[in-house]
Amino acid sequence: MDELEVLIENIVFQSADSAFCVFRAKSKETGSVCVVYRGIAPFVGEVVKMKGKWGEHPKFGRQFQATIWQSVKPSTAVGIERFLGSGAIHGVGKAMAARIIERFGDAALEIISTDPYRLTEITGIGKKKAEDIINSYAALSDMRELMVFLEEHGIS
User: Fold this and answer.
1) DSSP secondary structure string for all residues of 98-138
2) For residues 156 and 143, what is the distance between their CA atoms, to the nearest angstrom?
3) In 3D, which of 101, 97, 102 has the Cα closest to residue 85?
4) pLDDT (0 to 100) of residue 156
5) pLDDT tens series, the chain, 156 aa
6) CA-to-CA distance for 86 and 98, rounded, in angstroms?
7) Cα dist. 132→89, 117, 126, 127, 137 in Å?
8) What domains sit in the chain, N to C, each tagged with a CATH number?
């Protein structure tokens, strides 16, 4: 089984029941790659580690057929800004992500996790918006943990 770490560039297709997806990604080792996965797609801007095998589709060419993927938590300010600005967190777009990073740098995710009401220190984030961001981030984190647990136990 091959392993690949990639940055998600765009989602080409996600079935209505989230049972199948196709996405484009970029890897340091292989450059741009098309990935096919039976399950929910990762978020654009997210870095993931995948396991699977390479295959050749008669119409679409070389593809990585992922059997499992796991999100790699971004650790740099650039990676965190890309993740926050990806649309994965409700209420945070690219401009808001830039302001969060400007204020908190590479500690942004830690602050959102442990002292989230500090978000109100940022222009444009009041108590209500901070709560929306906190709830969205918590739901996303819970969903990711559940997905990892299920994948580890052979349930895609």
Assistant:
1) HHHHHHHGGGHHHHHHH-GGGGGGSTT--HHHHHHHHHHHH
2) 13
3) 97
4) 56
5) 999 999 998 999 999 887 899 999 999 988 999 999 998 888 888 889 999 999 999 998 999 999 988 888 777 888 888 888 888 888 899 999 999 999 999 999 899 989 999 999 999 999 999 999 989 888 877 766 666 566 556 665
6) 12
7) 9, 11, 10, 9, 9
8) 2-72 (2.40.50.140), 77-150 (1.10.150)
Phi-psi region of 154 (alpha: psi -120 to 50; beta: other; left: phi over 0): left
Tokens representing 140? Answer: 């996303």
How many alpha carbons lie under 13 Å from residue 82 in its C-beta half-sphere? 17
Instruction: List the structure tokens of 83.
Output: 């993740």
Helix axes 77-84 and 94-104, enclosed angle (nearest 10): 150
- The one-letter code for the residue type at 111 is I
| pTM for this entry | 0.70
The burial class, CB within 10 Å (0-12 / 13-18 / 19+), for 8 is buried
Contacts 24+ apart (CB under 8 A), 126-134: 129/91, 132/90, 132/91, 133/89, 133/90, 133/91, 133/92
C-alpha distance from residue 4 to each of 26, 76, 144 (Å) = 10, 20, 19
